[in-house]
Design goal:
Spore Coat Polysaccharide Biosynthesis Protein SpsA, Chain A, disordered C terminus, about 325 residues, Glyco_trans_2-like, seven-stranded mixed beta sheet, 9 strands
């Protein structure tokens, strides 16, 4: 006779860069909050004792040499096999004690992603620019991709196995959370949000975010994802801008031609014609790429459905019968 476990396996994923002041405590608290889970810390070229202190606290430590959170998340999702994945930061701003609530929501709601939205994020943002940018980017997200999320930048999330193994991570930096959110919105996956307290960094721990640099990267990511997922809207907007510009330049020339029979401003006329041609090209591009985007969405959906859902999709949490016997 052998024992076969019924309950889902849980993996806690913590990407880290120079978090020696907090990572040991974070790992210990996750191990206490989810004793059945394995805690993985992926060290992203830290220049301090992050890896040593994480290993001493009981985590499995792996090094990822490509710099950037997106590279780390892509590696973690590829390497680790589990039924439930909990992702957090190593800076101590997210409470490990809330992980059980994320896991419970994931299983009971049959969701593919649970996002711990941050209460008090503005108080801890450090700089007014972070808080302001967070609000504006969330508003922009809702206008571009839908109202599924109220905090697209939260790093505290729980995922189903099906989501992790079908997520086509492309981003290299902090834009990875935006990409996750757009992926869920595009495929209309079941998602849940839970409001959680957001703590302050302890003394000696420094934020890796740059207001302008990372804000620019996120804005660029928005534009790229809008082009890839909603090309008709993206190129249609460009077509409308070109058309309006063309008509603004063309109208005075046409009025003058109607009055005098002459076209004295030939360069203006030629520019207006060029802009109208660009408008037609943008419109045609949007129509063609819209069909391509629909096909890609279908392919992503099929990849998602073909991924193994794991035991979490069929087993209540916590399992009332964690062990069963089989011959």
């Amino acid at each position: 006779m052998r024992l076969v476990r019924n309950e889902p396996t849980v993996a806690v994923l913590i990407p880290c860069f120079n978090e020696e002041h907090t990572i040991g405590d974070v790992v210990q608290r996750f191990r206490a909050a989810l004793p059945e889970a394995t805690v993985y810390v992926y060290d992203n070229n830290s220049r301090d004792l992050t890896a040593l202190r994480a290993r001493a606290a009981g985590a499995v430590v792996v090094r990822e040499p490509r710099q950037g959170k997106g590279h780390v998340v892509r590696r973690m999702f590829a390497d680790i096999d589990a039924d439930i994945f909990v992702m957090s930061d190593g800076d101590g701003t997210y409470a490990p004690e809330d992980a059980a609530a994320l896991v419970n929501a994931l299983v009971t709601e049959r969701a593919d992603m649970v996002v711990g939205t941050r209460r008090g994020v503005e108080a801890d943002a450090g700089r007014a620019g972070h808080a302001f940018g967070n609000r504006q980017f969330n508003r922009l997200y809702r206008r571009l991709f839908g109202a599924d999320f109220s905090d697209i930048f939260s790093g505290y999330r729980a995922f189903s196995r099906r989501f992790v193994k079908s997520f086509p991570a492309v981003s290299g930096g902090f834009e990875i959370e935006t990409e996750m959110s757009v992926h869920a919105s595009q495929l209309m996956l079941p998602v849940v949000e839970i409001a959680l307290d957001y703590g302050r960094r302890p003394e000696g721990s420094v934020s890796k975010l740059s207001t302008w640099r990372d804000g620019g990267k996120i804005l660029w990511t928005f534009a790229l994802l809008a082009k890839e997922t909603r090309p008709l809207r993206f190129f249609g907007t460009l077509a409308a801008l070109f058309l309006v510009s063309s008509l603004a330049l063309m109208s005075p020339v046409l009025l003058e031609y109607a009055a005098t029979g002459l076209v004295p401003r030939m360069p203006t006329w030629m520019l207006s014609i060029a802009l109208s041609i660009f408008a037609m090209l943008m419109a045609a591009t949007g129509l063609v790429l819209d069909s391509v985007a629909r096909m890609r969405t279908e392919q992503k959906r099929m990849a998602y459905l073909s991924a193994d859902a794991g035991r979490a999709a069929h087993t209540p949490w916590p399992s009332l019968e964690p062990l069963r016997t089989s011959a």
